Structure prediction request, 456 residues.
Amino acid sequence: MASSPSIVWLRDDLRVADNPALTAAAARAEPVIVVYLLDELSPGARALGGASRWWLHHSLTALSDELSAIGARLTLRRGAAAEAIPALVAETGAGAVYWNRRYGALRDVDAQLKSRLRADGLVVESFGGGLLHEPWTITSGSGDPYRVFTPFWRACLAAGEPRSPLPSPESLDGIAPASEALDDWDLLPTRPDWAAGLRAAWTPGERGADDRFEHFVDHGLALYHRRDEPGIEATSRLSPHLRFGELSPHQVWARVHGPLAPEAAANRAKFLSEIGWREFSYSILFHQPTIATVNVRRDFDAFPWGEPDPAVLAAWQTGRTGIPIVDAGMRQLWTSGWMHNRVRMIVASLLTKNLLIDWRIGEQWFWDTLVDADEASNAASWQWVAGSGADAAPYFRVFNPVLQAERFDPDRAYVRTWVPEVDGPEYPRPIVDLAASRAGALAAYEAVKAAKSAAG
Prediction:
């Protein structure tokens, strides 16, 4: 009897361990085809930014090595899923297709494809691989999605223990249809090659994720109560590994609930609540897939964000605002593809409130420059700072970057690392008066409130 191979369609789950789709294919006991599809054509697809493309190249390289070690091969294809996956089925005579779920606009593509392939007689199953809890399972007493983080996370904690991580398959009977060449995808920058700082800072791939996580558990978690201080190594820096699925939240949950030093154990709950914010962002995305372009709070459609002065926007993007902690953050971003979370809030507040530049412009810049640019967390966080999102900070909370720096970088370790000329004559004067621009932002918000009241 001819075999009917199982296709594992990978997306944001570039790992072998705790991969439910891969585990299901192994259990079916037929030859396994592992495919990654670069899909920038399906309705709702968003092309990756430059930093994410760099990460993807190296993550796929690492994944190929991990799969080879257990007998499988990574097949690379490019195109719209609705055409490319059925074509691969027809080409290989596959009898089953497995994938781990995604939660934004592309879930409609997945649902239609599942129906179509099942109608053709295939086994098609999807799994929860990227979140602790599926978004539709965490709802309020009335059945509505939560709009405030604290009750959302409380409901997550009350929902029971997340499942245990799945082990890696010991071996696979892998087969390899024709594959495109990764180098032909041109994911890496060449003219110019701006990725030297990324190469110095990161090791993409499942092993890189495991190593960074263990280092954090051993050395960083005990300092996590100081996570708001950007000048020390007190955060996990797991965000890009989670974004590309090289590490799952189930693995994070299980490891942090394992043996820990007392100082680390004291920070367990707070660290896991940050995983909770990621879950919350995905809940928002699931219920509003357009969060990268549409205000969650629609009354903010009337907010008078204007067209930015190109020189002012460029000063913000390149870290030349004359506001030291903002410039430090934007240079850290440009160099390493990452920025400390506290500083992300500070630079976003300056852009959206002091400079009155639309949050979507900032979100797009982060999308292009962050290695952890995530369709849920990036947009939800920008909307949170701008005041237009779920559980948004009160609009009158305008981060004062001077006071923030005095509180969280008092010895200027962070600023001096990224802005060494900060005290020199060449350092520019601030591009905006913080007090006057704060007053302008509050006045603009009062106009939005008035318009909402007038509309009833």
